[in-house]
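Whiteboard transcription, Tuesday session. T.W. wrote the structure tokens on the left side:
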């Protein structure tokens, strides 16, 4: 059956080559028509020879321990619907399906996973994009043969261009109706805004610029949600046991937006690495503030002043007069998944106050890992004294300064903190510390969330009656509202009841909702049960959320049993997550093995990381040799000296 005149434009055929590693290209003869006498051959490739990244599947987080370029795939509800369509095509009937969802929700990856079942039947794939997507599609659709997947990622580039999009839509309708060329599978992706544009009815009678597209698309869409459901998140937790990237996504993704985290992080890291000096300095200030205990909203004046000592002399002199505005513009630009390095905090209507900015969740994690051994410069502490308005932030930095022997700043910050009022929970301020020391719900219930409290009470009642399934469901509902601690407690009750798999899933969900302490408790319960590898697994999972004490506890236990090699490995793991005593203990191991020079080097790093006031470790006299009394590590004389600062030595 020959394509209609309106379906294919005259001109040369430019089929797109799907590039990949050592892939061969097969050239199919182009069907000739009167409207396209000069068409060239259509370039396709076996699905088994294609590479997902060449088909515009987003890059994900790079992890050295993972060999595959993409994380493990977790099936979701929309995948089931898509598989029905693929099976219909496999059965011989041409199909078209468009996955509709916001940026980085997993549309293209879902399409790639769906067509893998066609590879065994030697289906081919055609991805038109050269010299433009619309031109390649318009000139090549008439040549598409049976058992071909037509790959229209970002389908607006094919269907929206004025004068061309409607011809491509008509050609696709012709292709799908041509039984001689069946089966064909056309897969596309669209953002909702583009879907609305292409399928909306005309505003004025007699003018219908999207008639062909609307007829083509209507009823052939599958919605891809922004976030994972609770049930899907359980599957992610299972897959994360063997995939570190998914584990990182669970730890860092907000509101269950797993795919946005996986796709957005590489783009964020690229922007971070390419940032100019001013923007990079702001990011380092924000990273340091968050890892040392400040709340999520950082005042603009603090960021600007603190950044000064993060710049070298030449960088400082090269800054433009409006460098701060340029830096904020750069760091505030969104990447995949609508993420930004440093985003301006949105105020509620009617509220006033200084502009503040919020660091991206993953960049906060990245800062904890890469800057954990760096002590902020003087401009950071000076700016904190002048511009941080919250007592909780100033108190946190007081502790951080004293732990790093910045005793003068510790004293000044303590005085400043006493001048500031205690925050009120009713004001919606971030009063909870970044790490939880105990699972205590005595004062964690918002007064306006009585329903949430009732759900948690019902969950505990169900658990007491051994109805653990109902208890988990109610606790999860409470966690989704405002209280994840109840879910963490229910997870531990599952563990005590002999339901370890369910306990693991619930503990991970509680952590994802903001209560990671359940993972720490679960680790110690597995430790008491002599399940040592499992204990270490959950300790590492807790460390992903900033709870590093469990790794330290396990290290101490291993050393107590005489397994110093494993103890040192656990201390090194704790150090990688920023535990304040980890480097000190590693230094002790080196000192005991008579590697004094290396011990001293690590000891200095430990002090900069914040070990001076931490009571966990039992160090050797290496510390006493580093600095004389009254001198701070940066060479600044302290204004006073108090032996209480040395109580851990």
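and on the right, the sequence the group agreed on:
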């Amino acid at each position: 059956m020959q394509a209609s005149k309106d379906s294919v434009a005259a001109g040369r055929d430019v089929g797109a080559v799907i590039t990949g590693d050592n892939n061969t290209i097969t050239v199919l003869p182009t069907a000739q028509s009167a409207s396209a006498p000069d068409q060239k051959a259509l370039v396709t490739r076996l699905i088994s020879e294609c590479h997902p990244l060449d088909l515009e599947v987003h890059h994900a987080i790079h992890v050295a321990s993972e060999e595959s370029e993409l994380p493990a795939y977790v099936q979701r509800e929309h995948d089931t619907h898509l598989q029905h369509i693929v099976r219909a095509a496999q059965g011989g009937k041409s199909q078209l399906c468009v996955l509709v969802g916001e940026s980085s929700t997993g549309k293209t990856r879902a399409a790639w996973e769906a067509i893998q079942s066609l590879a065994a039947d030697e289906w081919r794939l055609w991805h038109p994009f050269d010299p433009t997507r619309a031109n390649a599609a318009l000139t090549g659709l008439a040549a598409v043969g049976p058992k071909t997947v037509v790959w229209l990622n970002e389908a607006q580039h094919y269907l929206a261009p004025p004068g061309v999009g409607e011809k491509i839509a008509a050609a696709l309708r012709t292709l799908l109706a041509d039984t001689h060329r069946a089966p064909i599978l056309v897969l596309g992706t669209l953002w909702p805004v583009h879907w609305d544009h292409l399928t909306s009815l005309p505003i004025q009678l007699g003018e219908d610029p999207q008639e062909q597209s609307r007829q083509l698309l209507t009823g052939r869409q599958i919605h891809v949600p922004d976030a994972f459901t609770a049930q899907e998140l359980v599957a992610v937790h299972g897959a994360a046991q063997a995939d570190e990237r998914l584990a990182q996504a669970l730890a860092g993704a907000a509101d269950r937006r797993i795919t946005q985290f996986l796709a957005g992080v590489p783009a964020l890291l690229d922007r971070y690495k390419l940032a100019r000096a001013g923007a990079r300095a702001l990011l380092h200030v924000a990273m340091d503030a968050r890892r040392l205990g400040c709340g999520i909203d950082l005042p603009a004046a603090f960021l600007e002043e603190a950044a000064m000592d993060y710049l070298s002399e030449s960088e400082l002199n090269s800054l433009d007069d409006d460098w701060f505005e340029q830096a904020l513009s750069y760091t505030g630009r969104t990447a995949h998944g609508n993420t930004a390095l440093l985003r301006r905090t949105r105020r509620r209507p009617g509220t006033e106050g200084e502009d503040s900015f919020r660091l991206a969740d993953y960049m906060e994690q990245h800062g904890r890992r890469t800057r954990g051994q760096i002590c902020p410069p003087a401009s950071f502490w000076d700016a904190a004294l002048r511009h941080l308005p919250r007592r909780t932030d100033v108190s946190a930095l007081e502790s951080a300064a004293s732990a790093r022997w910045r005793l003068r700043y510790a004293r000044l910050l303590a005085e400043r903190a006493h001048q500031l009022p205690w925050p009120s929970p009713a004001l919606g301020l971030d009063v909870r510390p970044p790490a939880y020391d105990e699972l205590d719900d005595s004062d964690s219930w918002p007064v306006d969330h009585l329903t949430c409290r009732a759900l948690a009470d019902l969950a505990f009642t169900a658990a007491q009656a051994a109805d653990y399934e109902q208890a988990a469901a109610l606790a999860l509902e409470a966690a989704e509202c405002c209280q994840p601690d109840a879910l963490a407690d229910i997870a531990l009750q599952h563990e005590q009841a002999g339901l370890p798999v369910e306990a693991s899933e619930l503990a991970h969900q509680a952590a994802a909702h903001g209560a990671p302490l359940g993972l720490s408790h679960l680790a110690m319960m597995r430790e008491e049960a002599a399940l040592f590898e499992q204990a270490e697994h959950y300790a590492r999972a807790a460390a992903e959320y900033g709870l590093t004490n469990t790794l330290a506890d396990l290290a101490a236990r291993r050393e107590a049993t005489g397994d110093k090699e494993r103890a040192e490995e656990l201390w090194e793991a704790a150090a990688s997550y920023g535990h304040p005593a980890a480097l000190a203990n590693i230094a002790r191991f080196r000192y005991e093995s008579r590697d004094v020079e290396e011990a001293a080097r690590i000891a200095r790093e430990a002090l900069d990381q914040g070990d001076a006031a931490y009571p966990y470790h039992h160090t050797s006299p290496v510390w006493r040799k580093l600095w004389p009394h009254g001198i701070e590590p940066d060479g600044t004389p302290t204004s006073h000296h108090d032996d209480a600062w040395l109580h851990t030595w």
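Someone added at the bottom: Confidence is low (pLDDT under 50) at residues 1-40, 424-449, 612-649.
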